[in-house]
Design a protein that fits this description.
Distance between the termini: 13 Å
Structural class: alpha/beta
CATH architecture: Alpha-Beta Barrel
Number of helices: 11
CATH superfamily: Dihydropteroate synthase-like
Order of helices and strands: HEHEHHEHEHEHEHEHHEH
CATH topology: TIM Barrel
CATH class: Alpha Beta
Number of strands: 8
Number of domains: 1
Oligomer: single chain
Radius of gyration: 17 Å
Amino acid sequence: MVATISSPDLAASPAEHPALRAILSKPYPAVMGVLNVTPDSFSDGGQFIAPERALAQARRMIAEGADIIDVGAESTRPYGGTQPVSAEMELRRLQPVLADIVSLGVPVSIDSMKSDVVAWALDKGAMIANDVWGLQHDSGMAELLAARNAPVIVMHNRDRADPAIDIMKEIAAFFARSLDIAAKAGIRHENIVLDPGIGFGKTHEQSMIALARLTELSSFGLPLLVGASRKLFIASVSPSEPQQRLAGSIAAHVIAAKGGARIIRTHDVSDTVQSLRVAAAIWEKR
């Protein structure tokens, strides 16, 4: 018997886009491999900025079981110190490698908050937009994605953390605004994935609360993505550097899967795939 992990309300909202439908059809969460073609990402900045190394890493993650390759050319550094770059710089980093990654045959998502960059990437064969500001940063993003019928990952974000707020109410209100923008632009509801934005605009405690209470977001009736990979909240529990946070990342991601996440975004594909499959197989025996 194939093991499954429950996904609240997902059956009621089949994805319209064939790439998203295929990704969400797996009996356990799909795995999105992180590929940063940047010099300053918090975990692996500079490792894959050379096109040949980026392509090799994409091949490696696909061989390890990645269902999506998420390519980003601007570091969003969830814990501060972000150095914004222009659309021109993002494109300069993407142009030597994106088409080759697309040619590997696994769906590619473009991690950018700029509609110009996303439009270019979609033209080159990327299938999914991953917007860390949930359609609320670039006024042209929603219209672009509606016109292209492209799936979008809507991530919760804040300019800064506020320990006084109810983070689950804040995430829900943010998503409600994003979904209103999407609906007015004509984005299909079924083409939207929600991401609570672990580490972004949150204290460490709030990131853990979002993971612990992930099931509350199932009320939107949309698939959930969680990316807790190597995030700093892990070090707040067990002091460690980014490269030492594999075990904490897996713990967070297995809990997220149990809470209904259908896509897990990670730097460590092989270990994450194994952990999700084993967890699903064990839960199936209940």
